[in-house]
Amino acid sequence: MLQTLSTELNNMQSKSKQQDQRIENLYISFQEIYQIQNNLNNPGSTKHNMLYQVRPEVFNQILIFLDIKQILQFRLVSRRAKETVKQMLPKQIHNLQKLIEEQQNEIQIKIQSAQQAGNNQDQKQGLQAALDGLSRITKAGIVELKSFARPPELVEKIINLICLVLDPTFKIQKDNWKECQKYLNQQNFILLIINLDISSLSEKQLQQLESVNSISEQQAAAMSIVATSILIFLKAVLELRQSQVYVTQNAIKQLESKIKKEQKLVDKLGKIIHK
Predict the structure, then answer these.
(1) Contact between 127 and 232 (Cβ < 8 Å)
(2) Is residue 124 a contact partner of residue 240, using CB atoms and an 8 Å limit?
């Protein structure tokens, strides 16, 4: 019994020593954190920090190779780095303003180009006609389409393409009808197509969609009325998206979005300078 008590006492002493060591390590960690914070707040006491021996012109050379985001992060290195960055910001603002001006000029050129190209009214009317055709599809038509155990290859190809348009993660492949049926089983399947934002289609989706040009509407009509309506819609979408006017208008929107972000950044940098 005495031996058992002695063993337990030794274990308690060992645990106590371990706990004391943990507390001591924690205290050392707090001391190190305090010292680092003190060094940042008091540059004069940081002789070991090589950053404080770097000349301002060297700092400038470093910042030349950084983008705006990295430059702003560089301010956190030290107080001296913060002041150096602050002195460089006017140049960064000037570069951004010059970029904005160039992009605004580019927008004007694109507007003139779009005006010379005429309009894409025919393509828009074609899309609207296709949408009207989709709205006339009945539930019975959808039921008939999805009831195919093995649909004609042409029909399966059309439905694969509309699934891809609705879902960019959808993978087109042979004998993929079961996956297609999951989309056809959605109660709002046709409504999803009608409400589709065609501007959201990626270049990759459009490239795959180009295969509709090899499908005849007459061939599709002989197999499925619903598939034919979907085919007409897909062709109309492709034609509108590839029209010169649409491409130019979309490029203008992207430039305007960039300018808006860059102007916000200019305003942000201006506030930092005047702090």
Answers:
(1) no
(2) yes
3-state secondary structure of 216: coil
CA distance 247 to 206: 13
DSSP state of 195: T
Which tokens hold the place of 145?
């389409």
pLDDT for 15 equals: 60
Q: Are 162 and 234 in contact (CB under 8 A)?
A: yes
Q: Please count the residues of the chain.
A: 275
> What single-letter amino acid sits at 132?
D
Instruction: Record the pTM.
Output: 0.58
34 vs 94, more confident: 94
pLDDT 10s digits, 3-29? 554 565 556 556 666 666 665 555 555
Burial 48-71 (b: 16+ CB within 10 A, else e): ebeeeebeeeebeeebeeeebeeb
